[in-house]
Amino acid sequence: MSDIKKTTYTADDIHVMKGLEGVRKRPAMYIGSTNSAGLHHLVWEVVDNAVDEALSGYGKKICVTMHKDGSISVLDEGRGIPVGINKETGRPAVEVVFTELHAGGKFNNAVYKSAAGLHGVGASVTNALSEWIDINVYQEGNIYHLKFENGGNLAVPLEVVGTCKKHGTLVRFKPDATIFSTVEFKWDTIASHLQESAFLMKGVEFVLTDEKTGQVQNFLYENGLVEYINNVNINKQPMSPVISFADTDEETQIDIEIALQYCSEDYNETIYSYVNNVRTRDGGTHETGFRTGIAKAVNDFAEQYKLTKGKKLEGSDIREGLTAVVSLKIPEALLEFEGQTKGKLGTPQAASVVSNFIYNKFTYYLLENKEFTINFINKCVASQNARLAARKAKEEARNNKKPKQEVILSDKLTPAQSKEYAKNELFIVEGDSAGGTAKKGRDRLHQAILPLRGKPLNTDSISMEKLVHNEEIATIINTIGAGFGQNFDLDDIKYGKIIIMTDADTDGAHIQTLLLTFFYHYMRQLITSGHVYIAVPPLYRVYKEDGKKVIQEYAWDDDGLEQAKKKVGGGYKVSRYKGLGEMDAIQLKETTMDPKTRLLVRVEIDDPFLAEKRVTVLMGRDAGIRRAWVEENVDFNKVDTFIKEVK
Prior knowledge:
Blueprint: H1 21-25, H2 28-31, H3 36-55, E1 61-66, E2 72-75, H4 93-97, H5 122-128, E3 130-139, E4 142-149, E5 153-163, E6 168-175, H6 187-200, E7 205-210, E8 216-219, H7 224-232, E9 243-248, E10 255-262, E11 270-275, E12 278-279, H8 285-304, H9 315-319, E13 322-329, H10 348-368, H11 370-399, E14 425-430, H12 432-441, E15 447-452, H13 464-468, H14 471-480, E16 497-501, H15 506-522, H16 524-528, E17 532-535, E18 540-546, E19 549-555, H17 558-568, E20 573-576, H18 585-593, E21 600-602, H19 608-619, H20 623-633, H21 639-646
Helix pairs in contact: 3-5, 3-6, 6-7, 8-10, 12-18
């Protein structure tokens, strides 16, 4: 009877989840996911509250501490969360803030002109998804304390535990390990977030401490977004100093601050946008306004001074090589985000406000800086010419009745037979030995194999001429078939998946970073559109012979190894794969290449700022720094750690 479907739907079927039960039931609705990104979102919610106080002029220092017991704390110098009795609930206000969704002072313009915590659920969500959370409020000479446990249950009611001369709030919490796939906070992730906040808040100091390692890092910037751009473009060739503008729109009271810089040998467009110090990863109306305004400014200027011979520049021509930071402070009454994680701004007014702002400011800058303007317009025209030439060549190739013979620059490529490009996969494989095995184990119809001869070229700081004359890189470009740099066209790729398949060791990780650096600089859309993957081969094979039959299990980490031993049973043997070449074709196919059984990790750019920093560290000239980072951060005996770092 248990499988009989219920045909009636009554009032008794409606379940009302009390308090924070709904958050624990569907955490991804509030923090996006329950993986490492969601875990760190708990930190951002608490940090946002501290930032809001500093934005309002209360406090110049915010301290984040990673504790030895796996908890984390945030201390600010703000006014302190109110501890008086809230009239609506009859409970202390600080208790309400940490237990009720959509409760807080962010909805009152008299308290916060602009704030990151628009939805008012941050503190309560962090509480709901924590094993425990401990709050100290320093206010009016007293230290107020309360504590929650097991997802928001009040364990210690509000009490006065001492006196003090300071003001602010200290929030310390430990994430619930039964909810998250990992409860390990990452230094680099938190440091990057705090550094971003410091860039956005001139004169406010952020301090990050790790009690386990003793590491301490301070972030304090007096020149804000200018230092942000300089930090991002440290290894590039700028065409001018950082250009920055700031003002307040009188009608909407939206504060606008924009910094930008063009680099001569960069073919990518990098825009970091923020609203009330929260990164809008998916853009929104402010980014649309920025792109519209800067394109109009350049085209109007070029037309007025006849610099483009009547040919209108497209936005992509104008933004090639651009790095920009767009930061808005929007009053709560106008603030609209799409989703709790605030990934995209929806405020309609922001589009026109930012567009008019950057149009006027950048037009004036072009007029006042003739040397830069000439070089800049020439760069835009060169980009336009390259785009039009690429389009013409593509059209000629399509109209040519006699198809041109494909040029294979390396005889190592074994192509896929199918012309259904979306279903095809290109495996870029470490070494001839593994490449030969992969050829035998592949699906000939949809899988192509390209073995690498040694390590690829480091493309982080080389000339374009050297790049195209490197056989390995040239073969990859030709094989993917979509061009590179300014001529890259995602519509022309010949593979739905580009899969990097290397040994699970330091050299393998190095090859991955070299290839990802090339894709990042010259085919970034491959990554941002989700076409680049990392193959994850197993580390262990557990097996035993049972008569003529072989019983075997594979394991991708040490935890899986123990499970595999139990499944195989007594008398087992364990093989530790040191490389792909140690597997035969059948083993490689069923563990690493077959879509039904393999494990792939899609490469994503969750944090563009951190990605730029990572490329600088990993692909800089100091090989010692690169190797030290890989050895410190990548655990090749634990697949989930490996995956997190690759992503």
